Amino acid sequence: MIVCSCRVLTDQDFASTLDSELPGCPRSAAEAYRCLGCGPECGRCLKTVRRILADARAAARCHDCVEDCALREAIEAPLLDAAE
User: Fold this and answer.
1) Beta strands in the chain (DSSP E)
2) For the range 8-14, what are the long-range contacts, defined as Cβ-Cβ under 8 Å and sequence gap of 24 or more?
3) Cβ distance 17 to 32 under 8 Å?
4) Which InterPro entries match (predicted)?
5) What is the pLDDT along the chain (84 residues), one digit of tens a residue?
6) Which of 6, 16, 22, 80 could form a disulfide with 41 if both were Cys (CB 3.0 to 4.6 A apart)?
């Protein structure tokens, strides 16, 4: 399903960014965009991207980095929300 209509990116595009990195260190929404070679344009998709990444981390049972992931999201959320 297309998640970001501005950049025409799908849920699979975002989930695949987790596959390309070192184990135990999932990407935040901003890092996922950077991995895909772009950034959010209008920002309406950011909440959905965060959910997709969180669901993918949960499915991968990423227990070792849960605190780190939460910290990254807490730091980046205000910055990404400003783009909305």
Assistant:
1) 2-4, 9-10
2) 9/36, 9/38, 9/45, 11/52, 14/49, 14/52, 14/53, 14/56
3) yes
4) BFD-like_2Fe2S-bd_dom_sf (IPR041854)
5) 999 999 999 999 998 888 765 554 556 888 889 888 899 999 999 999 999 988 887 877 654 555 556 656 666 666 555 555
6) 6
φ, ψ of residue 41 to 5 degrees: the values are -100, -65
Q: Are 54 and 74 in contact (CB under 8 A)?
A: no
What the block records as the tokens of 62 is 């990423």
- Residue 10 corresponds to which tokens in the numbers above? 């799908």
Residues 6+ apart with CB under 8 A from 49: 3, 4, 14, 29, 32, 33, 40
Residues 79 and 73: their CA atoms lie apart, in Å, by 10
**What is the bridge-based pairing of β-strands 2-4 and 9-10?**
antiparallel
Q: What is the DSSP letter of 84?
A: -
